[in-house]
Design brief:
With 171 residues, the chain is of the alpha+beta class. It is built from two helices and eleven strands; from the N terminus they run ααβββββββββββ.
Length: 171
């Protein structure tokens, strides 16, 4: 093999190694810092309530199963109150018939912690009963400490945990 061929092979291998190193650094950077998202207004301002209650993507209707409870007596809950977590004390009006929850900036309730998925869960109003649907999140969603597998009813004043945040629905 000529020296020129050997030199070209060495240079090609060196370029390939550096490309691999840059690919690893890029993957680590995107995992650590994520994608750039818009800054949310400070909690408690009117803009924060408006940004948190934006409409979410429309979900497919959930079929009623025999195990689904009938509509609860009385009006459905109209506010969501965060009882523990980074946004403790925040109250959101439940306007509309669904609310998405997750780390994504387009979620109705944005929860930024390491245990919340980008699109973690969805609250849906169905027959005057709020239902919680887990959107195949990594760490799961919990109603009264029980992990949610299928859409589950959320009665008023029942603790719901997503990541490190716990909230309740109130009338």
């Amino acid at each position: 093999m000529s020296e020129l061929t050997l030199l070209l092979l060495r240079i090609g291998f060196l370029i390939l190694m550096w490309a691999f190193v840059f690919a690893i650094v890029y993957a680590l950077r995107s995992d650590l810092f994520g994608t750039k998202v818009r800054r949310m207004p400070a909690a408690g301002t009117p803009a924060a309530a408006a940004a948190s209650s934006t409409a979410a993507p429309v979900a497919a209707p959930v079929a009623r199963t025999p195990s689904s409870p009938p509509a609860a007596g009385g009006p459905p809950a109209r506010r969501l109150v965060i009882t523990s977590g980074a946004k403790e004390g925040l109250e959101l009006p439940l306007e509309g018939d669904q609310l998405t929850i997750g780390r994504s900036a387009d979620s109705g309730l944005v929860i930024r912690d390491d245990y919340t998925s980008t699109h973690h869960a969805r609250l849906m109003l169905w027959d005057d009963v709020w239902m919680l649907q887990d959107l195949d999140s990594t760490n799961g969603s919990f109603v009264k400490g029980k992990k949610v597998g299928a859409p589950t009813p959320v009665p008023p004043n029942t603790p719901v945990s997503i990541g490190t945040t716990t909230f309740e629905l109130r009338r």
